[in-house]
Amino acid sequence: MLALLVLGLYPLLFIVAAAFSESSLGKPFQEWVGTANLEAALLDADIVASLVRGTAYAVGVSVVSLVLGVVVALALRHSVASGSIVRTVLLLPLIMPPVIVGTLWKLVYNPGGGLLATVTGFAGGDPASVSPLSSSAWSLPAIAVADVWEWTPLVALLVFTALLAQDEEPIEAARLDGAHGFGLFRHITLPAIAGVVAAAFFIRLVLAFKVFDLIFMMTSGGPGQSTTTASYIVYQLALREFDVGMAAAVTLLLAVVVTVVTLPVAFLTRRLQANHES
Q1: Which residue range(s) make up the domain with 71?
Q2: pTM to 2 decimals?
Q3: Which CATH number does the domain housing residue 180 bear?
Q4: Is residue 26 part of a domain?
Q5: CB proximity list for 89: less than 8 A, separation 6 or greater
Q6: 15: in domain
Q7: What top-level branch of life does the organism fall under (predicted)?
Q8: What distance in Å separates the CA atoms of residue 121 and residue 114, rounded to the nearest whole number?
Q9: What is the mean pLDDT of the chain?
């Protein structure tokens, strides 16, 4: 309980208090300003756009990670005996620090000799013209690719564990009745692991909302504001402009958005798990 109070309650109270006050990095709680910070944040087009952009990004990468993770888990299930090396390789993106992941993919996208530019050159294109991190349209999708590469193994391992725990008798019975391929997965396998799949999606969604390291290392929020999310806005406000009050207000707005988006997923997860247990 003491650990929860120190690590959870105190930071939350500090953020709430800072959001309703004029606070700088060195001098917090200088003056109580009521809802002025929240109102200013909601009227700031860049902050609102970052919240919308971050939500779309989080949902998009989570869906892609979930689909790819389920596919990889199913493939691993059919190669349990020979898949130990593959499962070990899947752990590599997870154990790499996000800063290293961002640096790695920044080198991949480097137009001056990166992997993408090299492949483009071999295909007969102009390597210098392939620079997704310099494009307002492609910079965020490029970060999303790195994000999906980093966290899809987590989804795959969670789903794979659920597949290993699945009872084989219903599967064998369904095969005897002629169920195969996607039909077998849809009607037998998926209902049995739906709770775990939903839980994996929930975890992935929360992680996607928190993305900061990749953006910091790969684009620093640019070009322009094309890759600026709410978490990066908080960093800019608190540690570059030293406006802790406004940063706390944006943090509260982000918390509201995350709650609204994740609550239905959490409810669905509990319901699916309850149905499976019953």
Answers
A1: 34-277
A2: 0.90
A3: 1.10.3720.10
A4: no
A5: none
A6: no
A7: Bacteria
A8: 11
A9: 88
